[in-house]
Amino acid sequence: MTYTLPLVVFLTALFLVPLVQLLRLSLRPVDANNTARPGFTFAQYGRVFTESYFYGSLGRTVITALLVTVLCVVLAYPAAYVLAHRRPGVLRTVLFVIVISPLLTSVVVRSYGWVVLLSGAGPVNRALVATGLLRQPAHLLTSYTAVVVSVTHVLLPFAIVPLTTALGGLDRDVHRASQSLGAGPVRTFARVTVPLSLPGVVTGALVVFALAMGIYITPLLVGGVNQPLAGIRVYDQVSTVYDYPVAAALSFALLAITVVSTSALGTAFRLWERRLHG
Fold it and tell me: Which InterPro entries does UniProt cross-reference here (predicted)?
């Protein structure tokens, strides 16, 4: 206990104290200039849940996070399967470095990479025009599709890593036993591999969903400030409107939805696993 006390104090100061300060700010009234005044009110939360500008962004954020989570899990499974079943060697090391290399690069750099790719004179538009699919460059930037694609790319490694760990830890004898009982490769994959790898799927999905709920740099750079996402709304309230109490209230609403959603998914998986294994 003595050795862990400094760590507990550090984590408390680093996370809990700012959250308490932000909560206090969200409960402050504002004047006509959106300046926080002394006092206590739930008016900011009332605005968040009654004005479509705010609650609409919360709903769109949840939908976007769910979509990105599904895409990341679907795309991560083949990559994780290859990494988990590849024998240790140079090729496996190269593949693993390719997977984790985006995590070593700033998210701003990766986001600007998508800006370059999707710009009017970028490689994507040039390829579409050159192949005759488009007569003139399309407006790919500032679109919702561009936001989903870029956010999926940014968060994909967070799904691949836990899936690779889960698939790599599976007992190969179980697969051989399944095949010896007459199950083919497809049935073995569907009835053995996928159920046993679900802990990795759930872990990756929870991490990606939580990160997608709060991400704003990539959507802001690729999609623009008009994207109806809660993170961008918070950024706009802080940098343009200067309404810090509303920004704090919207941040806590986003945090609450994220915590409730991830807790519900984790609880559902634990109940399903308990029912499956008894």
Answer: MetI-like, MetI-like_sf
The pTM assigned to this predicted structure is 0.87
| Residues listed for the chain | 278
Alpha-carbon torsion (120, 121, 125, 129), positive or negative? positive
Rg over CA atoms, the chain = 23
What is the reported pLDDT for 205?
92
Question: Whole-angstrom Cα distance, residue 128 to residue 193?
Answer: 39
Is residue 63 in some structural domain?
yes
Token pair belonging to 79: 């990559």
| Buried b or exposed e, range 134-151, using 16+ CB within 10 angstroms | eeeeeebbebeebbbbbb
DSSP letters for 72-95 = HHHHHHHHHHHHHHSPSSHHHHHH
What's the gap between Cα 156 and its chain centre?
A: 9
CATH number at residue 121: 1.10.3720.10
Total domains, the chain = 1
- Residue 189: inside a domain: no
Rounded to 10 degrees, what is the CA torsion of 124, 125, 128, 132? Answer: -160
Highest mean pLDDT: which range of 63-72, 161-170, 217-226: 63-72
